[in-house]
């Protein structure tokens, strides 16, 4: 049985509705650090064994959680656990910065970039392109039913980057007018499919139909070493509107043939993962 | 200047947010009948000339309004106006029934039919298939931001037809699991494109990608004799959410290459309008 403090963090991770794979991975790494503060020896080893199942089970779609649980060794030494968890956090931060640098180069002057939902990697690319002095416009979806697009809008507002917000159903209409599509990913499967907020697949299809290049941005810890697109278990969180139950799968799967490239901290994988 | 009574009806038509092309056409025909009750002779002729611009201008996307305004002759005789308006209504009702009969044949036992937004022609098909004793399931979108999908859900509930409601962003996910797609149309352009609620194009793309046949149902008065897909003026009704302005084009345009057929009262047009 994991200590109460850790179970609280896991519960917080499970109930998070807006933030994605990167946030979850950071929170998971913090859970390991908290564990290293609480336990040592055999107790720590047992807890780490439990974490190997508990952390990926928070959300099976998230490759970041799977990779985090593999990154931390099972040991009785709390110093090792703390050091590895801190290394994971540091590598993740470096990865995001580097994705910004690499992805920022993809944005040309006067680009119209369409995106869906909120990805911290995509935001990092927008920041880097802004720092490079590029002028571009972002078209973003409100991203129903949790409206995380509006959180992205607030960030862009702070950065002074012009944007327009659309309903999810207009992804096709506005893909036609865009020059580049950039989305995040919660998981890039072994066969190169991009698992991301439901609606991403529709954007990819519309981009394909209109010749707009479609890229996903993902730290390498989001590349899943085992899972294929057929194995993806999609998490669902139904909700009610006007007394009706609304189906609500959080993610969909975009096959690699619609993805121009996956922007990672090591470079752009084209086609995904076949470097 | 049109009489106050008529201007009120036109205003009601302009401000209607949920109901589509069929409802607007019926309401427009009622406006003509009201006009015939109020005016005659030269006054009626002048008003009818004004209606030729006013009725299509209510919503330029709607072929039904364009065709209605051409259906009613400019005359001083109120009896002629009333008779033609009533004929339009009768033909429209017959057309919808016949579309139900023809379209109902397309639904096989255990079909999973995906649709988007609320179309009275599609509802008629569901009713007819139900009367024929067929068992099938409907997957429908809530259709943000006005949620007209929930109005369809209430109709299906009354009819005892099983259904599931999804968010618009899940159209891709659920198209994969569907066996047939049926949508309405506010306009079928001269080059066969289907103008319908924004998001329809995304559904068509997802159906194409998954080999699911995609049909539109439209009374013949929704076939536009002049407008091509390039001429479509898309009506926009932006709204605010959390202090942000949200772009909101009501319609998008699905090119004929993604449309298996258009179900009209005369039969199924395959490819659209090339009979």
UniProtKB/TrEMBL annotation, chains A, B:
Protein name as catalogued: Translation initiation factor IF-2B subunit alpha
Organism: Thermococcus pacificus
Coiled-coil annotated residue ranges, if any: none
GO molecular function: guanyl-nucleotide exchange factor activity; translation initiation factor activity
Alphabetically ordered keywords of this record: Initiation factor, Protein biosynthesis
InterPro entries found in the cross-reference section: eIF2B_alpha/beta/delta (IPR051501), IF-2B-related (IPR000649), IF_2B-like_C (IPR042529), M1Pi_N (IPR027363), NagB/RpiA_transferase-like (IPR037171)
Family in the record: Belongs to the eIF-2B alpha/beta/delta subunits family.
Pfam families assigned: IF-2B
């Amino acid at each position: 049985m994991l200590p109460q403090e850790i179970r609280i963090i896991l519960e917080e991770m499970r109930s998070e509705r807006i933030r994605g794979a990167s946030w979850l991975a950071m929170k998971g790494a913090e859970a390991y650090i908290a564990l290293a503060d609480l336990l040592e020896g055999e107790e720590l080893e047992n807890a780490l064994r439990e974490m190997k199942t508990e952390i990926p089970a928070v959300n099976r779609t998230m490759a970041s959680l799977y990779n985090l649980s593999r990154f931390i060794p099972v040991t009785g030494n709390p110093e090792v656990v703390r050091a590895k968890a801190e290394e994971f956090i540091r590598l993740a931060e470096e990865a995001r910065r580097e994705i910004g640098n690499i992805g920022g180069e993809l944005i040309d002057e006067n680009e119209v970039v369409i995106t869906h939902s909120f990805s911290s990697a995509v935001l990092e690319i927008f920041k880097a392109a802004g720092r490079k002095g590029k002028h571009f416009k972002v078209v973003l979806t409100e991203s129903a039913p949790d409206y995380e697009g509006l959180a992205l809008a607030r960030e862009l507002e702070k950065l002074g980057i012009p944007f327009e917000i659309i309903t999810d159903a207009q992804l096709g209409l506005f893909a036609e007018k865009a020059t580049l599509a950039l989305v995040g990913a919660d998981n890039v499967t072994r066969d190169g499919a991009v698992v991301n907020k439901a609606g991403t697949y529709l954007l990819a299809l519309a981009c394909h139909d209109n010749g707009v290049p479609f890229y996903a941005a993902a730290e390498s810890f989001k590349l899943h070493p085992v899972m294929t697109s057929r194995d993806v278990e999609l998490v669902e969180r139904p909700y009610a509107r006007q007394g009706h139950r609304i189906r609500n799968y959080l993610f969909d799967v975009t096959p690699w043939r619609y993805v121009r490239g996956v922007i990672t901290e090591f470079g752009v994988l084209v086609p995904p993962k076949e470097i």
